[in-house]
Structures are given as structure tokens and as C-alpha cells.
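Justification of resources, computational component.

The compute hours requested in this renewal are based largely on the per-chain cost of generating structure records like the one below. Each record pairs the submitted sequence with a full C-alpha cell output. That output is archived, and it is also reused by downstream analysis tasks.
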Amino acid sequence: MSFKFNKFNESDRIMVIFSTRRSDKSGSETVYDLLRAAFLLHYGAVFPEIKKTINGKPHFPNMADIHFSLSHAQTHVLCVIADKPVGCDIEVSNRVISQKALRYFCSDKERDMFDPLDLWLLKESYVKLLGGTFGSIRRLHFLRDGAQVIFPDPDVCSKLYSIDGCRAAVCGYDPLPEKIILV
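The structure output for this chain reads:
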């Protein structure tokens, strides 16, 4: 699969977020195609080997200074490349998170402070940032101060995005770009 990228600025190298509509391929195949294309565009190098940590987080073992996170939904894929650890999640905007799941994975206080889908996206992206497991979502508790999300780690930044019928969250240790680059 080939992608047409818009121009980017040198400052975009800190963190670049790409999204595209899914192809006829599976979400996993499409998101790895997007990662390969984004890597080539930004680093101009041969695409490195990918391995997974014991918790299943994909990484470049021979390029520890380049981090990425991947996610796919029914209609879109999302790829984030950064100089520091990063996590992302994307879901279709009309996805309904069941009340049972919310009660199990989220505190009463969280459910009062956040939109259910936003909370789910933030928790998943934060777990991906840390390289944790899905079960660890239950132990993570967030607060909100106005529009600012307060994570267990005060050094974490987050941003919620709307993308063509989808919503996404990205967490990282650097300020996040205002928009996602659609390809």
C-alpha cells in the first residue's frame, strides 16, 4: 500500500501523528504499512526490525531512540512516531463503552469527570505509553482540572483528537501537536 504524505516541518520530528483510512487489508497490516512509510519519510533509513516486549509493546530493538505507537479502529489506523515513549488509541466516534466495562475499569469519580469514550481512549493510550498490559487499566486513575487531564505521572502530556468519524488519544512526554496529519 502506498501513502501520499503532505509536507511536514522539521519540528514535526519530535512527534508525528499520522492517520489514514483502512484499506482492504486488516487493520494490523495497514497500520504497519503506515509505520513503514512514515519511518522512511522521516528517517530516510532502512526500516528496522520490530520486536515486542514481554507485555506485547512493539519497538525497534536496534533503534532505542525512536519510539512509536500504533492503533486501528474499524475505519482508520493511527501511527505515532516520537523521540520519547508514546502511546495512542483510536476508536470510531460512535463506539459505545458498556456500563459494565466502565464500572470495572473506571472509578466513579472518573466516570463523573470524563466522557466514556474519551476516558477509554486516554486509559488505553496511557497503558501503551507505559508498555503495560490491558489489565493494568483498572489500576490507573485520572482526574480532570477543567480541560486538563491529570495522570498518575505528572510528566505525561495527552491530547484528544477528532479524525473523520473517529476519536483518538495520544500520550507522551513531549508537548503534542495540535493536529494529526492525514495521509
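The radius of gyration is 16 Å. Residues 10-14 have pLDDT under 50 and may be disordered.
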